[in-house]
């Protein structure tokens, strides 16, 4: 069975600094997708970035980049130049590529950005 | 309205009440999902609908009854709930992978409290 592990319940970072949120995964599938979502206090889950298991390059979306290390089964999210609005819960998720698009989520990391 | 909308945003109900949660997506997607988010637990997938057909029921108790009348609307009918059912209920939609879909788009959620 697929499993996502986020070992950091909370992280603190100062504004304008970079921060890395950890995510490790476990799967026996050869083909899978990895996602990061942001959940502000309003509750809505906001898609940030996607990495396919066969993608050779790390995904980047603006200030977000995904440090994908397939052999280590890790997919860490790097946020550069943190902003106060980045304070939120961050969830790593995996999608199995066979069958339908079922997402499995980790327990999340709460990020607090201070001025 | 754009994206995925959910109503009501907040709901308080007694254990003997019957209520319904509504989700509507304005993205032209063909798959819709219900998730449950309890405190300090990962998001749990409840139901998946693909082209109005239920393709996944993640061992959800029968007191939760989904309905998908068309590809744009998804309901979750609630009856005789328990206090442990109090949670944030999130709806999501996506294009199925065969059609080139990737990430799931989430609504703002309904915060449910069962007294």
What does this molecule look like?
The complex is a heterodimer of chains A (115) and B (115). Chain A has 115 residues and is mostly beta strands. Helices cover 0% and strands 53% of the residues of chain A. Chain A contains no helices and 12 strands. In chain A, strands 2, 5, 6, 10, 11 and 12 form a 6-stranded mixed β-sheet that branches. In chain A, strands 3-9-8-7 form a 4-stranded antiparallel β-sheet, with no helix packed on it. The radius of gyration of chain A is 14 Å and the shape is globular. The mean pLDDT of chain A is 93. With 115 residues, chain B is mostly beta strands. In chain B, 0% of the residues lie in helices and 56% in strands. Chain B contains no helices and 11 strands. In chain B, strands 2, 4, 5, 6, 9, 10 and 11 form a 7-stranded mixed β-sheet that branches. A 4-stranded antiparallel β-sheet of chain B has the order 1-3-8-7, with no helix packed on it. In chain B, a hairpin with a 2-residue loop joins strand 7 and strand 8. Chain B is globular. The model of chain B has no long low-confidence stretch (mean pLDDT 90). Classes of the chains: A mainly beta (115), B mainly beta (115). At the A-B interface, strand 5, strand 6 and strand 11 of A face strand 5, strand 9 and strand 10 of B.
